[in-house]
Amino acid sequence: MKSLEQLDAGGCRLNDDSLAPLRESKNLYRLNVPENPLTDDCLRHIAAIESLRFVSLAGTQVTEEGLRKLHELRPELWIDILPGEDDLE
Length: 89
Known about the structure:
The chain has helices at about 45, 65-75, 85-89; strands at about 5-10, 30, 55, 80. By secondary structure, the protein is α/β, with parallel strands linked by helices. The chain has one domain: Ribonuclease Inhibitor (Leucine-rich repeat, LRR (right-handed beta-alpha superhelix)).
């Protein structure tokens, strides 16, 4: 898993601890996990992925307070919380 660069796992029923193994990823720079029942508890795993530069959390249960804390920890991380084009119709 250390060579993983991108992961698209939207709508895969991931829970917060499903993201724990990604902490070991050395090359993961893009993580798309929209439409999963993720909460603020998953953010500790996301924050620990040092190589990460983009994360999509649209349609999750992550709160505004959780996003604020993630931004404080990782200000360089681009965080997408907007619904995709399909969700806007």
